[in-house]
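note to self: the first set is below, dont mix up w the second
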Amino acid sequence: MNTRNQEIGLRLLRERTRFGFTQTEMAKRGGVGMSTYCSYEKGESMPKADALQLWAKIGVDVLYVITGQGTDRTLTPDEMMLLGSWRDSPEELRSAWLAFYRAYGKAVRKED
């Protein structure tokens, strides 16, 4: 077995655990079959760019998975998922969400 693949598999396992996903959920979110995903975690093979891209969209720290050097790991999985959803959202949805957030913020400040 390739040591580099094993290290990537271990980091992928850590990311999956951090998000609280099962192997089945992680496989589905990466667009791969269960046996393929299991081979990644076991270090038998390495994830392809397609799967990494899909995982990045839900907040998986793909830089960490591949290199061991994480990005901003201060964000929670929920925050990372929201950020990924934000990036994939159409402009109209972003504008509506920002309008809501700004109105909510003003209302909260008035109560203080």
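second set (the one i keep forgetting abt)
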Amino acid sequence: MLENQQLLARKLLERVAEEGLSSGQPKVLEFLLEHDGCMQKEIAHACSVEAASVTSLLNKMERDGLVQRKIPQDNRRVSQVWLTEAGRQKAQMVRDTFTRLEERLFQGFTSRERQSLLDMLQRIQENLKEDGSRE
């Protein structure tokens, strides 16, 4: 499983690097495509990234014109993160890249096999997220 994850990550990063994106940015862009205007801590939680790493990612993405941060009038202690038009285009490119890779991953699988595998992987993920106190 680790080897599969590494191969998938490498294929994805090769494709998005051609578009000037670095590691970590694709996941953030895709999340923002569905959750535009969210808070930074929501990005960190959803993308399983430390808050400091998200800050660093967003600083670079803001410099590159992919996102902008806005402080809401009603709560000046937080900032919301929004995609720019350039960021929205990059996010769509990331989504299209994920889709093409997924199609390649499941080449030769029946829809039933595909769903069965996805269900099993979901169960594995849930097991890994469980409290490890039973170990």
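remember for set 2: Strands lie at 38-39, 67-70, 80-83.
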